[in-house]
User: Fold ATP synthase subunit s-like protein from Larinioides sclopetarius.
Amino acid sequence: MLTQRIVSKSRYYLPCLYQQRSIKVRNLPIKYDEFETPYMKTKKPGEFFISNFYAMVQRKWTLADIKNYRRWKRMDEIRNSQRYVSERHKILGPDLATTHFLLSRGGKVKFKGQDEWMTRGHLDNDQIPSSYVPGYFVEELDATDAVLLYEGFENMCNLEELKKLILHDCPFVDDWCLNRMYMFANTLEYLDLSGCKNITERGICTLHVLKKLKTLDIRDTPNIQHKELVSLLLQDVIPRCEVIGINYEDPVLLKRIEKYL
Assistant:
């Protein structure tokens, strides 16, 4: 009898214990989902136009908020337009799919065995096949000044003959983009990152997977700290790699090297 009273009183005086049992805990997905990362944002379940509309109306907007919202909206549209489209790769194959993706954004492509660069004009004049044709292998990509985001690099997968990649003055190329260079680990020999203001020494360290890399251009990259030391560490992993944009005769660098000798 005493035990029953204690149980009944605990149920009466501690209702929170029974309320917590009904709380649904969100379990992490078993498989990795890129749409859960902050770089692949999509509309989540429960996000509707009406709820977003009321949230916008009730907020006190300033001119800076409007500019930031328009900038975010424009970037979100660009991000969605650069997502990986599996149907495009199934119809065109990896090389032609990458060609269509990059040429439509102002880039240039050179195929294996050809000396001419393919541009947007070739795509508009239907000189690029619109369905799979064997024998087209992308050997060089030039994305100078292209608006290329993290999501866009996934469209360059399965390029088995890519040897040269130029990302000169790409405003949105950062360390996360360099982390996807593992896709070209077995083929890439030349990488141009000159003028990419958003990359740091962390992104350069991820390039150690490019075992066949022969030339790396990192000129005009002000956010890379200790550029000389990072390049020496990279060359220690990839001995044949030549780093352009490094002053090896810097007296400060020579003093640091003497400490390790």
Observations:
- Residues 109 and 141 are 5 Å apart (CA to CA).
- DSSP finds eleven helices and six strands in the chain.
- The longest helix spans residues 63-81.
- The longest strand covers residues 138-142.
